[in-house]
Amino acid sequence: MITNEFWLDRWKTGRIGFHQEGVNPKLIAFWPTLPKGNKVLVPLCGKSNDMIWLAEQGYQVTGVELSSLAVIQFLGDNDLAYETYQQGELKIHTVTGLPLRIVEGDYFLFNDTEFDACYDRAAMIAMPDSKRTEYVTHTLQRLSSTASVLLVSLHYDGDKQGPPFSVDDDSVVSLWGEQIQKIASENLALTNPQHKEEGHTIFEESVWRIQP
Ligand SMILES: C[S@@+](CC[C@H](N)C(=O)[O-])C[C@H]1O[C@@H](n2cnc3c(N)ncnc32)[C@H](O)[C@@H]1O
Questions:
Q1: What is the value of pTM for the model shown?
Q2: Confidence grade of residue 196 (pLDDT, cut at 50, 70, 90)
Q3: CATH architecture assigned to 1-12+35-112
Q4: Which long-range contacts (CB under 8 A, 24 or more apart) does 77-86 make?
């Protein structure tokens, strides 16, 4: 069962293979040009450097993350000064000198709305089947009616149990709506021997976007 405890434990024991050192190349390649100051939501953000990149582009970035360890490591690793205040059950960490804040707590308790854009990398596919619809609905409710979305998803064969979970193309469309479009994909099993060794012939990373 993928519970909040599961994720807190992953951070406690340092099992964070999903974390990438650099900025995700798909973000740099496919992020749309939006007006500076636009509000960008990064659900289930971990300690992703992608948030720094987005903030440096001039967007007002909000990451939401359950684990206090992830938040502390993100702020520490990047040498960021910050201020913290409590808002209900959530802790808000606002970074000094960058338009960036990290909301620490359960994403499903985060209720801000009117975001202009959303970046989902390893968030939807971190959610088990039973919570995935709720995750996408909650995310869409946070966005303005004209918001852009950039989603990095994953689809693989074989009987691996997630996370990351495999989500097929039809499910992506039925979750996010007809306006979502697949703009790129790459079968990582062809280039990364590890996926082949784990028995996958398909391990497809795909990039999707909603662009109003
Ligand atoms: C697979 S990681 C991806 C992190 C990040 N997006 C990245 O690209 O590195 C999923 C993250 O979601 C966090 N998470 C899981 N459930 C959550 C929840 N209900 N609310 C907030 N964060 C959650 C986990 O702690 C973990 O850091």
A1: 0.98
A2: confident
A3: 3-Layer(aba) Sandwich (3.40)
A4: 77/47, 78/49, 78/52
